[in-house]
Amino acid sequence: MRTSIATVSLSGALTEKLTAAARAGFDGVEIFENDLLASPLSPEEIRARCADLGLSIDLYQPMRDIEAVPSDEFGRNLRRAEHKFRLMRRLGVDTVLVCSSVSPLAVDDDALAAFHLRRLAELAQDFGIRVAYEALAWGRHVSTYDHAWRIVEAADHPALGTCLDSFHILARGSDPKGIEDIPGEKIFFLQLADAPLMAMDVLQWSRHYRCFPGQGGFDVAGLVGHVMRAGYRGPLSLEVFNDVFRQAEAGPTAVDALRSLLVLQESVGLTEPPAPVVPTGIAFAELVTPDVEPVSEVLEALGFARTARHRSKPVDLWQQGEARVLLNTGPAARRDGTGLAAVGLESPDPAGAARRAESLLAPVLPRRRAPEDAPLDAVAAPDGTGLFFCATDRPELPSWTSDFEPVAHKSPTSDGIYRIDHLALTQPWHQFDEAALFHRSVLGLGAQESVDVADPYGLLRSRAVTNADGSVRIALGVGPAPTADQGGRAQHIALATDDLVTAARRFRDAGGCLLPISANYYDDLAAKYEFTDDELETYRELGILYDRDADGAFRHCYTETIGRVFFELVQRDAGYRGYGAQNAPVRLAAQHIRRPVH
Ligand code: MG
Ligand code: MG
To answer: Which ligand is closest in space to the CA of residue 588?
Structure first.
């Protein structure tokens, strides 16, 4: 199917929007009238720009408050329409969106509405233009797609059809099955948007919270299925009004937008991209640091040993059990300071995973970082984190570890930590929904519920993605970014242990610094759960936090933050699926108090 995007969905001036849409790979655009009005380019120049970029102009929108009004008013509306039809000829676009009237002058009279739309269509036909009539969910008298279609059917003119908009249909709670009763050739246009499920005024909901398909709570794919079965063959076009996208950079938003359409087409069987290859574990987490000492000290205190060094690069492998941390002191570290730069995902088919990612527009990273390195399949996540699809010591596949040479006589000083439990990746504030869609669609991970957490700088949203057995867990977070002297927004690496108290003690006794937690927290814990005094005292002493769900308990504590990263030690009962979210405000407040002072 051809893909299109309304210019209103992207930020910037019209030419920037067009460039972003074309670069992402869209076939066409809907020109939003306000974008044209604000542009210094003439309609002919906009037409030429689109042609240069290889974009068709699929729709001009919107024309408002046309139908079912007093006749003198309708006369003025026809005059206005004629102006717009001339403009559309100059632009080279043949379909106009007319949305159902919200005018206080409009009357509740379907026959009159049909009569007026027929008159409009007759005029449009003289200009070689088609009119697509759309029911706004807040239209004064016409607010559902089936009502709009009844009027179009009654008007019975070849230049008049309907425009379906998934937001208006699903926000009204209409049953989209009835779409199949509309002849496909009378569906002139299909606009797609998703939205989070919210109880709010539908106009505000539409103007501020629309999102790309797959990012919200609507069954957009189900709706598209009905539209296809009706016989629609026009473009799939995104029309998303969203406060966040309006402020985010147009280029990345356009890529995320197109990815959502690619995933949508796959889910309704229109395309067959390479299947997702679900990762089966976390092979490594790669930290970059300009200052190797503090990170090494923490890793050592945690019981890790530096077991190997990369043959050609300043990268060390630190290991304990199946938990592996790469410490990279290369150029990126000097630029960005200490942080989490890349994640190695254990993959049953690394090349297949990369093909899947590439087909869904993930930027592919160079396969070899140096000529002698083993080829590694890697892509960049929306936040820039490198995702390496790799195999660790599996005979049938080349192992990334073959690039490393063992360091003599080093073995971990502890066996208390056995793997990485989860990684917490902070997302730029405007990329939260895209990040969740990316990790779900590209990696084939399942998304858990989104949770809101209060922190001293505002509200933090967090959503985890995970594979079926929980061997890959990534917590995606977004929130107000504290400034650098507030410590910045940190990422973290959570390490799994079966005996948290012993692991935390060992870390502290080896000189490690655990994040102290307020005494009030432990008073609250004593009220909520039946701990012995000894247990509670131990938790207080080590800064151990506690959570429980129906299936088990979760105990966790934190190291102090180095640069933009810290470690978490976690002891998770098999059934517990969370991340201690209810403790996050306590942890965030403790980190706020302990932030580095400059
Ligand atoms: Mg619309
Ligand atoms: Mg965590």
So the answer is: 2
φ, ψ at 546 (rounded to 5°)? -135, 140
**518: closest CA among 591, 462, 451, 597?**
591
Q: Which of 231, 76, 232, 67 is nearest to 151 (CA)?
A: 67
Cα 305–Cα 308–Cα 310 angle in degrees, nearest 5: 140
Place of tokens 């329409």: 81
Give the number of the ligand closest to the Cα of residue 191. Answer: 1
**Is it true that 3-267 and 281-593 share their CATH fold?**
no
Look at residue 477 and give its three-state secondary structure: strand
How remote is the CA of residue 563 from the centroid of ligand 2, in Å?
A: 17
| Distance of CA 137 from the midpoint of ligand 1 (Å) | 10
CA distances (Å), origin 366, targets 117, 251, 377, 393, 507: 56, 21, 8, 22, 37
3-state secondary structure 314-338: CEEEEEECCEEEEEECCHHHHHHCC
Give the distance (Å) from ligand 1 centre to CA of residue 164: 7
Classify each residue of 347-377 as buried b or exposed e, where b means 16 or more C-beta atoms within 10 Å of its C-beta. bebbebbbbbbbbbbbeebeeebeeebeebb
Question: Which one of the ligands is nearest to 580 CA?
Answer: 2
Q: What is the pLDDT along the chain (598 residues), one digit of tens a residue?
A: 999 999 999 999 999 999 999 999 999 999 999 999 999 999 999 999 999 999 999 999 999 999 999 999 999 999 999 999 999 999 999 999 999 999 999 999 999 999 999 999 999 999 999 999 999 999 999 999 999 999 999 999 999 999 999 999 999 999 999 999 999 999 999 999 999 888 889 999 998 889 999 999 999 999 999 999 999 999 999 999 988 877 789 999 999 999 999 999 999 999 999 999 999 999 999 999 999 999 999 999 999 999 999 998 999 999 999 999 999 998 776 677 899 999 999 999 999 999 999 999 999 888 766 667 777 899 999 888 999 999 988 888 888 998 999 997 667 777 799 999 999 998 877 778 888 899 999 999 998 877 877 767 667 788 899 999 999 999 998 866 655 544 456 789 999 999 999 999 999 999 999 999 999 999 999 999 999 999 999 999 999 999 999 999 999 999 999 988 999 999 999 899 999 988 988 998 898 887 654 4
Task: Say if residues 290 and 338 touch (Cβ distance below 8 Å).
Answer: yes
Parse the chain into domains and list their residue ranges. 3-267, 281-593
Cα–Cα dist 368/351, whole Å: 13
Pick the ligand that lies closest to the CA of residue 171: 1
Q: Which two tokens stand for residue 248?
A: 């985010």
Measure 463 CA to ligand 2 centroid, in angstroms: 11
Residue 64: nearest ligand to its CA?
Answer: 1
- Which overall architecture, per CATH, does domain 281-593 show? Roll (3.10)
Report in angstroms the alpha-carbon separations of 62 from 95, 330, 496: 11, 52, 55
- In the three-class reduction of DSSP (H, G, I as helix; E, B as strand; rest coil), residue 287 is classed as strand
Classify domain 3-267 at the CATH class level.
alpha beta
CB 141 within 8 A of CB 100: yes
